[in-house]
Amino acid sequence: MAAAEAILLEDGCRLRRGALDHGYVRLLLIAVLSGLVCQFSASFPLADRRFGGPSPYHFLFKQVEYALIGLAIMALVCRLSPERVLKSRALSWMFVIGLGTLVLCRWGPWAHPAGGSYCWLGLSRNLSLQPSEFVKVVYLLLLARVLARGAQSAAARRAVLPTSLALMGLMCVGLAIQEDLGMAFLVVGMTLGMLFLGGVNVFLLLLLAVVLGLGGLGAASLSPERWERLTGFWQPWRDPMGSGYHPCLMLAALARGGLGGVTLGMSPDKWGALPTPHTDSIFCVIGGELGFIGAALVLLLFYLLTARAFLVAERAGTPSAWYIGGGLGMMLGLQALVNIAVATVCIPCTGLTLP
C-alpha cells in the first residue's frame, strides 16, 4: 500500500488549470494495455467459434479500435474547463436526445434485442451501440451541474434533492423500457453517491436507498426470470443446472485459479462454460488464469484509478471540478465493484460489464 500511496500523492499538492495529471494518465494506460491482454485471452475462443476459425483476433481488434477512439477523445476533452462543460446549453439537449435513444432501443427501427434486454441499436451489420453507456456520462454531468449550482445559493441548494431525484426518475424510466435493471442499479448508486458528495444528509440517503431497493425488488418480482435469478443467488448450489448455473460456474472458474492461476490464456472455463467470458464474466477468467494475486492486482488498479480521480478533483479547487472528477471516478469504481461482486457471487447477476 505504500507504493499505492506514493502514486496517489505524487506531483505536488495542487493542479494548475490545463495541466495533465501524469499519475492518472499512467494508471489509465496500464489499465488499457492490461485490459487488451486480458480481453484477448478471454475472447479468442468465442471469436474462433463465432467467425469460423480464421478470426480469433476479432474482439481484440474491436477493443483496440475503441481504445484508440477513447484515447483520442480524452486528448480533446481533457483540456476543457469543468465550468465551461457544465454551463453548456447542449448538455440538457444531449440528455433529452439520449433518453430518446433509450426508447428507440426498444421500439425503434434499429432495435437490436440481446440477452433478454433491449439495450442495443444495430446501426449496421458490423456496428451496434449501447446508448446507455453514453447517456450515463451526460446524466452524471447534469447531476454535477445541479450540485455545483447548489453550492452557490441557499435557494439552489434546496432544489438539489428534488431535481436530482427527478433526473434519476427519467433515467430509470428509460432503462426500465430497455429492461436493463443492471444499468438502473448503477444509476441509482451514482445518484446517491453524488448527493453524498454534495453534502446531503446521510440518514436521508440511507432512507432513500432502502426505499429504492424495495422498489427494485418489486420491479424484479414482475419478471419471473429475474426473480428466479434473484432468489437462486442465495443458494446457487441447490439448482446448479437452473437458476444457480451461472453463479456456480463463476465460482468454479475463480476457485480453479488458486493463488497463482493456471497461466495466462489457459483457463478452460472460457471455452463454453462461462456464458459471457469476454464481458460480464471476464473477472472470473482473470482470476482463473492469474489466480488470487492477479485478481487482487485488478482490484488495486481500480482502487487507484478511483482514488486518484477524487484526488485530482479535490486539487482542482472548484465545485464544478469536484463534482465532475469525483463523479466520474465514482462511476468507474462503482461499476467495477458491481461487476466483481457479481463475479464473486456477492450480489445477484446484473449484466454490467467490467469497465
Mean pLDDT: 87
Largest sheet: 2 strands, antiparallel
Q: How widely separated are the two ends?
A: 23 Å
Helix segment count?
14
Task: Write down the overall geometry.
Answer: globular
Order of helices and strands: HHHHHEEHHHHHHHHH
Q: Into which percent range does the helicity of residues fall?
A: 55-70%
Computed structural class:
mainly alpha
**How many β-strands, per DSSP?**
2
- Beta-strand residue percentage: under 5%
User: Spans with pLDDT under 50 lasting ≥5 residues?
Assistant: 1-12
Strand numbers in spatial order across the main sheet: 1-2
Radius of gyration: 21 Å
Summary of the model, kept short:
With 355 residues, this protein is mainly α. It is built from 14 helices and two strands, in the order H-H-H-H-H-E-E-H-H-H-H-H-H-H-H-H. Strand 1 and strand 2 form a beta hairpin.
Which properties best describe this structure?
69% helix; disordered N terminus; 14 helices; 355 residues; mainly alpha
Describe the 3D structure.
This protein is mainly alpha-helical and 355 residues long. Helices cover 69% and strands 1% of the residues. The protein has a two-stranded antiparallel ribbon with strand order 1-2. A hairpin with a 5-residue loop joins strand 1 (121-122) and strand 2. The protein is globular and about 60 Å long. Residues 1-12 have low confidence and may be disordered.
